[in-house]
């Protein structure tokens, strides 16, 4: 089986086995806040993490678990966590890293509410930050402090469409042992897998392409390392509590099934639209990395070859 088939097959099947659920083609929606234990001893073991099983839906839910396993596989990570919004995902990850007096090194542009959160962390807790273009290793290195707790990269940047070479950032970060978080919302795992490029965490506003139907607000974090993800699950996810509802997780599982088809069409439509707009003399600029004059054209090309590389392994 080639890789492309695997990606498309995973979109539909990963993390779910119908035989476990009365042969139901689709995963059931487990609208249960709490799960029961057969004995007090069993409850004790589950709370202690000595036995697999669900306890309380803020700590895990069977429908949500299917989504998490699917997203972990699509982003080539070891584990994933689903959240009630993209911003709940961003805040759980940032709160995991920051401490008072620490420093976030952030890409020059980020989603407006991420910008707002980073400002809030400064105002309330003294967490400082630097916004950096991240176009050369020198400028990234020059912005690293002793207290830099994470490097936060959004690429493509919403809405400026600037691109950042993830490998360039992770190569510098590795020298200093600093974790790299990438907001991959605008590419989706179909076009870019930041973990393969050396990042440690990937964030999605699943509200966008993961859902694809405009009917749910949700977020996803995928991590390279299972143990680190478990720490986030049991601290900043559990204790801040920005979890996803089982029904919303189910909607995302349904949306994901067509991700490859939708992304191909988005790419094609954007190319057509950019070409069409070019013929209008009153349009001054088209911000589109697929334009050969764009400084990001090279990376745009690499990103758009990704589905091809999936096809040929
Ligand atoms: C929308 C968006 C977010 C925030 O996600 P919500 O689901 O709206 O909370 C974060 N990052 C990017 C790049 C986005 O486009």
Q: Kindly provide the name of the CATH class of the largest domain.
A: Alpha Beta
CATH T-level topology of the largest domain: Aspartate Aminotransferase, domain 2
Uncertain segments: none
Gross morphology: globular
Strand content: 5-15%
- Average pLDDT, to the nearest integer? 95
How far apart are the termini? 10 Å
What is the share of helical residues? 40-55%
Number of helices: 12
CATH architecture of the largest domain: 3-Layer(aba) Sandwich
Q: Which cofactor or ligand species appear? A: pyridoxal-5'-phosphate
List keywords for this structure.
alpha/beta; 12% strand; seven-stranded mixed beta sheet; 12 helices; 313 residues; Aspartate Aminotransferase, domain 2; binds pyridoxal-5'-phosphate; 7 strands; 2 domains
Description:
The chain is of the alpha/beta class and 313 residues long. The chain folds into two domains: 7-30 and 61-256, 3-Layer(aba) Sandwich (Aspartate Aminotransferase, domain 2); 260-312, no CATH class. Helix content is 44%, strand content 12%. It is built from twelve helices and seven strands. The chain has a seven-stranded mixed beta sheet with strand order 1-7-6-5-4-2-3, sandwiched between helices. Helix 1 crosses helix 12, helix 3 runs parallel beside helix 10 (246-256) and helix 4 crosses helix 9. The chain is globular. The protein starts with a helix and ends with a helix. Bound molecules: pyridoxal-5'-phosphate. Pyridoxal-5'-phosphate binds next to helix 4 and helix 5.
């Amino acid at each position: 089986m080639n890789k492309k088939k695997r990606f498309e097959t995973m979109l539909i099947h990963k993390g779910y086995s119908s035989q476990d659920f009365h042969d139901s083609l689709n995963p059931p929606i487990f609208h249960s806040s709490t799960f029961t234990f057969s004995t007090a001893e069993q409850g004790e073991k589950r709370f202690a993490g000595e036995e697999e099983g669900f306890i309380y839906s803020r700590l895990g839910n069977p429908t949500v678990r299917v989504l998490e396993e699917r997203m972990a596989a699509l982003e080539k990570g070891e584990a994933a966590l689903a959240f009630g919004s993209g911003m709940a995902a961003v805040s759980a990850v940032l709160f995991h890293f920051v401490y008072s007096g620490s420093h976030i090194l952030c890409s020059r542009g980020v989603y407006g509410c991420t910008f707002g959160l980073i400002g809030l962390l400064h105002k309330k807790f003294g967490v400082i930050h630097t916004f950096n273009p991240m176009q050369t290793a020198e400028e990234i290195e020059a912005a690293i402090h002793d207290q830099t707790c994470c490097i936060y990269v959004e690429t493509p940047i919403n809405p400026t469409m600037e691109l950042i070479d993830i490998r360039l950032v992770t190569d510098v970060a590795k020298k200093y042992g600093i974790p790299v978080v990438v907001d991959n919302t605008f590419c989706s795992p179909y076009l870019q897998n930041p973990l393969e490029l050396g990042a440690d965490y990937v964030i999605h506003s699943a509200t966008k392409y993961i859902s694809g139907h405009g009917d749910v607000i949700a977020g996803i974090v995928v991590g390279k390392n299972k143990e680190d993800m478990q720490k986030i699950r049991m601290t900043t996810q559990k204790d801040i509590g920005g979890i996803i509802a089982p029904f919303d997780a189910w909607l995302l599982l349904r949306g994901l099934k067509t991700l490859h088809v939708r992304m191909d069409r988005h790419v094609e439509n954007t190319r057509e639209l950019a070409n069409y707009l070019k013929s209008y003399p009153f349009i001054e600029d088209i911000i589109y990395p697929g334009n050969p004059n764009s400084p990001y054209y090279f990376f745009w090309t690499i990103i758009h070859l990704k589905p091809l590389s999936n096809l040929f392994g």
